[in-house]
Design a protein that fits this description.
heterodimer, A: about 325 residues, mainly alpha, 13 helices, about 75% helix, B: about 325 residues
Chain lengths: ~325, ~325
């Protein structure tokens, strides 16, 4: 077990090095630089190429590529992600501001997703090929196809039309600061993202439950005269929910992706929004740092899930 | 007359006449639709959208870029200066017909520039299908090459290839697409390539595991014993046995890529110039509280088409490979 974890962790670091290399060279060949973007957005007339070159020299963008790459990796090894071109704050402190918002939204999305998916998946399996099953599966197919930005837009229309509550996108409170205002702000994105992530989990849980419900020990439990409720919750669900763990690991990447759109729509200053901004501003150090942190979260979540799987299911041997 | 080089016997399938093949294929299709009603339903919707894309020029009713005019209700022949200052359009008999609600004339209404939303939704089909089919094809072909090499040779090659795949997977998908599109200049073709590239990890992982399963089988070992080359084994023995897998990955990919393009376009990084549903949803958001029609119809089109491809993919999976059911 221990050697497995160490081997996987080493491989993950290798993966992160590839990610770092991809993002470094992608940013390098990207047309335009932070300096030229700033000048063009400030709309200053008569900016000479020399002025842009001078600004790039100050940012250190004029050095040879290999030297920049070496310095980037050297800093990375020391966990130094550099500082944002725009705000001049370190990338770590930018992350410190953005990550809490993203975790808040991410946790809410996961909560919504699972509180819908688990009962729906169980019900759908228990009522297999009956009306509730068809309706719930139809809903899942719809949820899988509808883009989160669209369902969120429709929700905004309805909230405005019926005057349900105020959506304030300027205050940006954390949940522990002003729970009511924050929840009103997060409500639509958390449901739009949550519902979109429900479908996969629900469908997997349903098929797992169907498989487990045909096992011999379920027949035995029925023969013993156990109430159906106990059979489903105690005997079936316990053995069906393990594969859901794998899905949880995989949805981390999906949820981070959907957060880019939702944070952009609702003006949530999280990691997704910062990522998108850093590309359009060509804020190189910020972009590189954010991509690496996201990649780190994705690869190590997957390792964590695999290890947990090995611990929870004695049939799975990790080697 | 036979030439010495001609193969003595062709495989059974290749000797059938085109007509027989056609009737067989259509019979199989009919059976598929009867067995898998939802899949048949998805297939019908997909076909309708393909027809819409091919004949968009005749089914659109109006030019998607035409700006419609409407009678100006406030028109006055000789307005005073004060009236003109209040409403600059008062002296013109016609104004741009913006934000019309759905009617017999404009089925889905008009957008903020006075263009027919129905015509624009119809024309948006072309981009969605081009992206879906193109990107999925690239992902499957590249995934096949990478997955097959990785699974067939295993060892160090597999180790390195899989780590690169992991790296692309761990890279935030939308940011990867945005970077590639901006490096290669935004255009429909480059969006197709970027999405296809971003989809490689998903295709390659599935195909790798399918090849791994076939690799250990007895007929592959038998082929190796007879001295068949690696290429021959891959093409003649491995490929035909993962064919159904490829079809499933391809069909499920189409829906996913249409959704991804819509998201990229919604965020404003889609192909410039082309009519895109994602961009329509975003442009309709400008006046969402009063004029939601553009967003509603464009998003509805995305949902319907993606749903159709998902239903079709699910049914194909059930029919072609029952082992994968519920994956």
């Amino acid at each position: 077990m221990q050697s497995y974890i160490i081997r996987r962790a080493v491989l993950n670091i290798f993966v992160l090095w590839i990610v770092a290399t991809i993002v470094f060279f992608a940013v390098h060949v990207l047309p335009g630089s932070f300096a030229s973007q700033q000048f063009s957005s400030a709309n200053l007339g008569g900016v000479t190429p020399e002025a842009i070159a001078r600004a790039e020299a100050i940012l250190g963008l004029d050095k040879p590529v290999i030297e920049q790459y070496g310095a980037f990796l050297w800093d990375l090894v020391q966990f130094d992600l550099g500082e944002s071109f725009l705000t001049k704050r370190s990338v770590w402190s930018e992350l410190g501001r953005a990550v809490p918002y993203s975790i808040e939204l991410g946790v809410l999305i996961v909560l919504v997703g699972f509180t819908i998916a688990i009962p729906v998946g169980i019900l759908s399996a228990v009522k297999q090929d009956q009306l509730p099953d068809y309706l719930l599966r139809g809903g899942a197919i719809f949820a899988l196809a509808a883009p989160a930005f669209w369902t969120a837009s429709i929700a905004v229309i309805l909230v405005l039309e019926w005057n349900l509550f105020r959506i304030d996108v300027t205050g940006q409170p954390h949940i522990w600061e002003d729970p009511k205002l924050a929840l009103q702000w997060y409500l639509i994105p958390m449901f739009a993202g949550g519902i979109a992530s429900t479908a996969t989990t629900m469908r997997l849980l349903r098929s797992q439950m169907l498989e487990v419900l045909r096992e011999d020990y379920i027949v035995t439990a029925r023969a013993k005269g156990l109430p159906e409720r106990t059979i489903i919750m105690r005997h079936a669900l316990r053995n069906a929910w393990l594969p859901i763990l794998t899905v949880m690991g995989l949805t981390v990447a999906t949820i981070i992706g959907s957060q880019i759109v939702l944070e952009q729509m609702f003006n949530i200053p999280g990691v997704g929004r910062l990522l998108w901004q850093s590309v359009s501003l060509r804020d190189t150090p910020l972009l590189e740092g954010l991509v690496l942190v996201v990649a780190f979260v994705v690869v190590f979540t997957n390792l964590f899930v695999d290890v947990l799987y090995g611990l929870l299911d004695p049939r799975v041997r990790l080697a | 007359m036979t030439t010495p080089n001609a193969p003595t016997s062709l495989p059974f399938e290749e000797r059938l006449s085109p007509l027989t093949r056609f009737t067989r294929a259509s019979r199989a299709l009919g059976r598929f639709c009867r067995q898998k009603k939802l899949g048949g339903f998805g297939l019908v919707i997909v076909l309708v959208f393909i027809v819409l894309a091919l004949f968009s020029g005749t089914l659109d009713r109006y030019d998607p870029t035409f700006v419609f005019a409407a009678e100006n209700p406030n028109f006055k022949v000789d307005p005073t200066i004060a009236e003109l200052a209040e409403d600059p359009n008062i002296s013109s008999p016609h104004v741009v017909a913006l934000f019309e609600t759905p009617s017999g004339e404009h089925w889905f209404g008009t957008d903020r520039f006075g263009r027919d939303i129905y015509a624009r939704v119809i024309h948006g089909t072309k981009l969605a299908l081009t992206i879906g089919f193109g990107a999925s094809l690239i992902a499957v072909v590249a995934g096949l090459v990478i997955g097959a090499i990785s699974a067939y040779y295993l060892g160090k090659i597999d180790l390195v290839v899989q780590r690169v795949i992991d790296a692309i997977y761990a890279f935030p998908f939308l940011i990867l697409i945005l970077l590639i599109v901006q490096i290669a200049e935004p255009s429909t073709r480059n969006v197709v390539f970027a999405l296809g590239f971003g989809g490689i990890p998903f295709a390659a992982r599935l195909i790798r595991s399918a090849v791994l399963a076939v690799r250990g089988s007895e007929y592959v070992q038998a082929a190796r014993v007879t001295g068949a080359s690696d290429l021959r084994i891959l093409v003649r023995h491995v490929l035909p046995n993962i064919g159904s897998m490829l079809i499933i990955v391809f069909s499920v990919g189409i829906g996913a890529f249409i959704l991804a393009e819509a998201t990229v376009s919604f965020l404003g990084a889609g192909p410039p110039g082309a009519i895109s549903w994602g961009r329509m949803v975003s442009s309709g958001r400008g006046a969402l509280d009063l004029h939601p029609w553009e967003s509603i119809f464009a998003g509805g089109a995305i949902t319907l088409l993606v749903m159709a491809f998902n239903l079709l993919g699910d049914a194909l999976r059930d029919v072609l490979d029952p082992r994968l059911r519920g994956v």
